Amino acid sequence: MTDSLDGSPAGPLIPQLPDDLSIRCIARVPRSSHSALALVSRSWRSLLRSPLFFALRSDLGALQPFLCLNVRTPTDQSCWYLLDPADRWNPILLPAPQLPTVGSACAALGSTLFVLGGSLHGVPSAAVQLFDACRRRWSLGPRMSAAREFAAAGALGGRIYVIGGCLPPADAWAEALDPACAAWSTVPSPPHLREKWMHGSAVLAGRLLAVADRGGVVYDPAAEVPWRPVPAALDLGWRGRAAVVGGILYSYDYLGKIRGYDLETDEWKQVEGLERELPKFLCGATLANLGGLLCVVWEGKRRGRSGSKEMEIEWAGIEVLKTDDGGLQGSIVWSESIILAVPKRSSVAHCVAVEL
Predict the structure, then answer these.
(1) What residues have CB less than 8 Å from 315, skipping those under 6 apart?
(2) Where is the F-box domain (predicted)?
(3) 240 compared with 106, residue with greater pLDDT
(4) Does some domain include residue 74?
């Protein structure tokens, strides 16, 4: 056991309780309270930072969803924030990544955010940047075998997959990262499906879907024929960012509507019930699955506090249910405005959910 804050030998984590039981009690405390718990003693602070403690919280089902939000300024500065649904109006500014890439792809596994490739000083990069949301630290991961910009990415079966992007060679158009061994491996792909620019990607029913400039692709690692074009209805209706919640892929279309695609019926349906609660047009709308809620983030139109020129972000958590006739009915669980200390002409680049 580590020493207490005053230098004396540490006693039990919680008096009158064995430490193994105390740890299980502490593991159930919401993540938003951990900064206060860290002040109790060095023993508590050390425990809260332990990977084993995170694993225990995962086993107990105590992990909570947070949103990593990436904002790009007019001067191409990359700013990352952590948003807590339990403390929705207080964004946490994160340290800047080591490499200021533009046009990166993003994916998450547990509490780790993967930022893949992107342009660095105008040149596509093969760099991989990892953000540990528990420790709030950036590090460099194993480089991809090819430089990529505007690629598709997603987490499947504990691995990170990346597809396409600008400049990858034909034999490395798709590849996968196994975090356990920190190594990339090439994923064979047929030439006729290879495209350059990706407008969006998502993981649906154990498959990685990517929309490109001339038709989308589906990758299913469990299928005998892993690659195929996306269904025509999906390809026609998906032209941007998307999120999968409850087996439905949601996208925000150019008409200002949130729609859901059902793979089983191969059709899009508008999410009803949001017309009066959301603005008619959500500028720069980005979507994420936040603990089973459809989280929508968009750029506000009002100035910041006291007439400043800071950027306003609005975000909402939406519960979507299937109706008896197969439709989609949405209701706002919460909605909040946030002021970010970045220039007003900044834009939302990514929002990715992590677990803490």
Answers:
(1) 67, 83, 88, 295, 296, 297, 298, 335, 336, 338
(2) 17-57
(3) 106
(4) no
Which two tokens mark 304? 């910041």
Of 87-91, 232-236, 286-290, the range with the highest mean pLDDT is 286-290
Which residues fall within 8 angstroms of residue 333, CB to CB, at 6 or more apart?
A: 293, 316, 317, 318, 319
Overall number of domains in the chain: 2
Q: Quick check: helix, strand or coil at residue 85?
A: coil
- Binned at pLDDT 50, 70 and 90, residue 1 comes out as very low
The highest-confidence range among 24-28, 308-312, 314-318, by mean pLDDT, is 314-318
Residues 117, 149: contact at Cβ < 8 Å? yes
Q: Is there a single domain that holds both residue 36 and residue 127? A: no
Cβ partners under 8 Å of residue 225, min gap 6: none
Average pLDDT estimate for 114-122: 94
In-domain check, residue 84:
no
Domain extent at residue 181 = 95-230
Q: What share of residues in the chain are helix, strand, coil (percent, to 5)?
A: 15, 45, 40
Residue closest to 208 by CA, chosen among 265, 151, 150? 151
Nearest by Cα to 283 from 330, 240, 250: 240
Q: What is the mean pLDDT of residues 332-344?
A: 93
Burial of 163 (C-beta count, 10 Å sphere; 0-12/13-18/19+): buried
Write the pLDDT tens digit of every residue in 199-227: 789 999 999 999 876 678 999 999 999 99
- Average of pLDDT values for 186-196? 79
> C-alpha distances in angstroms, 190 versus 252, 315, 346?
30, 40, 38
pLDDT by residue (tens digit) across 36-51? Answer: 898 999 999 889 888 8
Q: Which two tokens stand for residue 164?
A: 């396409």
List Cβ<8 Å contacts ≥24 apart for 109-112: 109/155, 109/158, 109/160, 109/179, 110/54, 110/58, 110/63, 110/354, 110/355, 111/54, 111/354, 111/355, 111/356, 112/179, 112/354
CATH number of 197's domain: 2.120.10.80
Residue 145: CB atoms within 10 Å? 15
